[in-house]
Every structure is written in structure tokens, then in C-alpha cells.
Amino acid sequence: MTRNIQEAFEEAIDFVNIIKKPAGTVSLEERQKVAKETVENFRDYINKGFLEYRKSVTEAGEFAVTEWTGQGSILKDALDREYIDILGGFGLYSYGIRHPRIVEAVKAQLDRSPQYSQEMLDPLRAKLARVIAKLAPGDIQYGFFANSGTEAVEGAMKLAKFYTGKKGFISMLKGFHGKTLGSLSLMGKNDYRAPLLPLLEGIRHVDFGDAEAVEYELKHAKAVGDEIAAVVAEPIQGEAGAIVPPDDYWPRLREICDKYDVLLIADEVQTGFGRTGEIFGVDHWDVQPDIMCFGKALGGGVVPMSGFFSTPKIWEVMEPNPFMHTTTTGGNPLACASALAAITVMHEENLPAQAAEKGAYVTKRLRELGERYPGILHDVTGMGLLIGMHFVDDEIGYHVASGLFARGVVTAGTLTNAKCIRFEPALNIPYELLDEALNRMEDVFKSLNVS
């Protein structure tokens, strides 16, 4: 690539001018150009592999599906093709795309101050922390805000090590906690770990849902002098395929962690803020973790936002030197405004209850489809609107996902279970759109013609 500063400036100016045009005034010719150039730019400047993986390229015909706008549970591409969104941005869009109340709050804060000075006290961050402390179970009170889920997990690991003085962790097979080096060390799938080994020392993995396996590891670690700082788990495994543990699992984890004097970390990045039918996933079992990680929906689907929170007792280690863990952009005013507005929407629209009711409806409909068209859908798992559709094999799963895309429904597989397709729409998705998505899914099942 030859350096050309003048061309760089000109291209940036041209695209900013397109962004600034009022909706509906960008010509079809301009949008077609954007669609074509987007494919070239992914190929030449981001990653060629995405073009082979993305159904937006492989199933789209002459012009790749280039995301242009969206509202609620409808996405529209640059050529005005519409798609029902049951992917929900991998849990990002719990409130729908561009929820008006959330966008309004962010725009208002943008006019006041988009970032912090880093020296004055920032009121939005302080208020959001107070609100989350009141939402969280038990004694969870103090927190730190960041930008992504993996940052929240990294911070939680760091806090656990700092507080306990121990280095080891127990995490779950098929678990997903992010892909920075610390959180990747916790991940329970070989594909993403093996090329980067060695990762952090002292990580042990056990089967999700098996509390006795956790106790076995803690017992033997203690016997040989290996020190474990914390047990880390998702309340419901998301990327593994919306896997729900046995009812006694989380209460037993709490008992076991107390018995062996280790911390319990709940990764609520995907399950938090209403997704599973409760405000937090651990609320299903009335368990208080020692540390909780948040992300995805926390930012309202408008501004990236994450955080990790803990109890006053644990957080004391952060007080003598509050600069032990810092970030320049985490908890910025726009993100906090977005999160505060999102929490008001969650309350006023009763999104946890919507998730529970609609999740039961979708699960019932999916199981009926599985019975009518045997040999395609093996199982349906999950809680609320964190639903995994488990197919007989990878090939069928791919054909269902691509068939849905061709019929105007956006979904995708999970990252640690290739046979599983997610059904994870906005919690306030209308029933009419759920029915339409399910009808199109039945059409895909018919087309597979599996006996």
C-alpha cells in the first residue's frame, strides 16, 4: 500500500458528507457504490476471511448486504432490502435498534459533553454506578466501567487476584469470556486458545453444570498448594448454545466457593439486563456472586459499555491506589447516558417479563417445528430470549442460517458450538415479527426436505 495522505483526507471527507446527508437523500447510485467498495475494503484492509464467512456476501447476489440503517427489530441494507433481526447483535440489542429514548439521551449528552476531562468528577458515571448497585443482588456495590465485555472480565480477574493474592482460576468448558489474553485463558474451547498458548498460568477447566467437578478441582488444588483466586462462569452459557445448568448448580457453586475461600465471578455480559427473563441471570437462583461482569446490553445498543462490580469488602483493595486499574474512555458520558436511559427503558417496558413470556412462546413454536420436520432440529435450549437451536449437524445448521438470510431473517451461529444457531432478538420485538420469522424458518425446514 502506497502512502497517500491527500487521498486519505479526501476519502474521509467524502464519506463524512454521505453520513451527514438526511435519511432518504443518499442516491441509489451512491449506495450501490458504498456496497461495492465495502466488500473491497474488507478484502484489502480488514480481513479477507470475513468475506467467505459472512452470509451478507455469500447469499446476497450482485451487491453484498451492506448495513445501512435499522429501527427496532428491522435492519435495512444500502439497497433498501429489509431483514428481521433475531440475532440482536449477539445480545447487544436487548432494547431494539436505535431505541428512541436511548438515542435521545445520548444526543442530549453529546450537546453537553461527549468525553470527560479525566480530572473533574463525572456525574453520569457516579449516578450509573449507584443505579447498578441498587439493581445488583446482595452486597454488590462498587464498580468500574469499560468499553467491552472482555475488558470487564479482565478487570474482574485482576480484582480477584489483587484481593486474594492468588493466581489460579477455575472456568468452564465451552465457556466464553472474551478474546483478550486474560479472558481467553478462561475460554473453554481449543480453537481460539491453541494458536496462542501459553496463556495465563493456573487455569483449570471443568464441565459446566457440574458443581462437584468444581469442588474436586478446589480440593486437589488445596492439597498440592495450588492457589485458586476465583471460579468464573456464565449463569447460562451463551456462546456454547444457551446452555442452562441444573437448578442446584449456582447455589452449590456459592457454597463450594465459601467452603474453600475462593471468589465466585458471574459473567453476566450476555445474560444481564433482562435477557433471560430476570434482570440478571443469577437472579433465577437467588445467588449473590462476589464479582459480576456486565456488557453488551448495558450500553443500550447505542454506545459500547461494560463494567465489573463487587462488594465493599473486596473493593477495599482498590482504594489505597485507585489508579491500579484505569481507562481513558470507559464510562464516558455518552456511554453512561446510554446505559441510564437503557435501564429506564428496561423498567418502563418491563423487558425481563417480555423476555420470559416471548421466550416461552418461541421455544414452544420451535419444538413444534422440530416435531413436524424430523431430522433437522435436535433440541432447543435457553431461558428467556437467549435461545439456542441445536441442529442435527453443522451442515444443516449452516443451511438453516443461510436459508433464513435469503428469506430476510438475520441470525448466526454461536462461537463455541458450530451446530447451534441463536434466536436472540430484541426483548421488545413485536409478536408479529416473531411469527413472521418463525414462518420463514418453517419455509427453510420444508426446503431441506429431510425425512
Automatic annotation (TrEMBL):
One of its GO terms (molecular function) is identical protein binding. GO terms for biological process: putrescine catabolic process. The keyword Transferase applies. The keyword Transmembrane does not apply. It holds the Pfam family Aminotran_3. SUPFAM superfamilies: PLP-dependent transferases. It catalyses: taurine + pyruvate = sulfoacetaldehyde + L-alanine. Its cofactor is pyridoxal 5'-phosphate. Keywords: Aminotransferase, Pyridoxal phosphate, Pyruvate, Transferase. Homotetramer. This is Taurine--pyruvate aminotransferase. The lineage of its organism: Bacteria, Pseudomonadati, Thermodesulfobacteriota, Desulfovibrionia, Desulfovibrionales.
